[in-house]
């Protein structure tokens, strides 16, 4: 089973085709649309979470690409909101890479984005909602 968040780019000449319907009907792909910008006869884009069995997923990708749709991986990054952090330390003990760590001698929690592998454990652990996951498509949005 594959579950993946991707950006789909639709050229203007195919933007009105029912791709999401076809993915479900022909390839048993479930699509959860997270963001869409579709206008008739103009280039469109969509951020979508797709899930399907491996073979169906690969057939669906071939289908999209053969119809001119560009499929791009959706990058994700973790953002630490320092002003919301209450310094409880809950994230530090569960972070597997020490991306969240205690700076000494100040003994304050800090975040190093270069060490973060986006496992998302800290999101669930933070009682102050001081950690967020943000998605970046190829335009950095
Ligand atoms: S997402 Fe994972 S690796 Fe990144 S800071 Fe949170 S716990 Fe650490
Ligand atoms: S769990 Fe949240 S509030 Fe606690 S130290 Fe980490 S970021 Fe700060």
Structural overview:
This protein is elongated. It contains four helices and eight strands, in the order βαββαββαββαβ. The protein has helices spanning 19-27, 54-66, 90-94, 121-125, and strands at 2-10, 30-37, 44-52, 70-73, 75-80, 100-103, 108-111, 131-136. The mean pLDDT is 89. Strand 2 (30-37) and strand 3 form a beta hairpin. Strands 2-3-1-4 form a four-stranded antiparallel sheet. Helix 1 (19-27) packs antiparallel against helix 2 (54-66). The protein has two domains: 2-73, ACT domain (Alpha-Beta Plaits, 2-Layer Sandwich), CATH 3.30.70.260; 76-136, Alpha-Beta Plaits (2-Layer Sandwich), CATH 3.30.70.20. It has 141 residues and is an alpha+beta fold.
Structural class: alpha+beta
Instruction: Report the sheet-strand fraction.
Output: 35-45%
Total discrete domains: 2
Helical fraction: 10-25%
Short description:
The protein is α+β, with helices and mostly antiparallel strands. The protein is 23% helix and 35% strand.
Features:
alpha+beta; Alpha-Beta Plaits; four-stranded antiparallel beta sheet; elongated; 141 residues; binds iron/sulfur cluster
Give the helices and strands, then pairings.
Layout: E1 2-10, H1 19-27, E2 30-37, E3 44-52, H2 54-66, E4 70-73, E5 75-80, H3 90-94, E6 100-103, E7 108-111, H4 121-125, E8 131-136
Helix pairs in contact: 1-2
Bound molecules: iron/sulfur cluster (SF4) (2 copies).
One iron/sulfur cluster is lined by residues 78, 95-97, 99-100, 116-122.
